[in-house]
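Shipment paperwork, digital attachment
Item: protein structure file
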Amino acid sequence: MNNVYWGYSTDPQFERTEAVRLVRLALSMDDDDPDTLARASLITSFMVGDSESAIEMADRAVALNPNSFSTWNARGWVHTSVGLHEEAVRSFERALRVSPGDPQLHLTFGGMGFAFIELGRFDGAIVWGKKAQRQNRSFPLSYYCLASGHLGRDAEAREAAARLREIDPAFTISAWIARGGLSNAKLLIEGLRKAGLPE
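Attachment content:
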């Protein structure tokens, strides 16, 4: 899934199919493991597009282990991917409370930024994008947040877009969506376009 989503795959269709096959195999061995359910919810949402099943798995994951950063973070991303942004924010906030020093915080910060953009809270999106950037300077999602969150501030948006192009020179909006990007993220995509990123 990560190879497909981040654009590293030389055969995205094979790797997408393989991610789904492997997650089904893992669930057949143990469908009550919260970490397996968390990963399965992400793959089901981003690679399959089955929102209902993804939400159900994410909810089961946090019910089984409410003290897990990874389960709450996955639940946040699943809710972001299906357009339930307020619920995504609540999940990301819980992940931050559970593990405020987690090495994967940039994922949660980026998720908060995405959710805030879609909620029209652009100043908040910039704050979360900058937090993600400080946590991991090569994390593309932080620059998505900064490019989109700076709506109306063209210089800052273009600067973030330029940094994104340094990290991912082949980035296009349509390729990102095809890899599993949030096709329903209308404000985020609009912001990427306004920042000058290629279609």
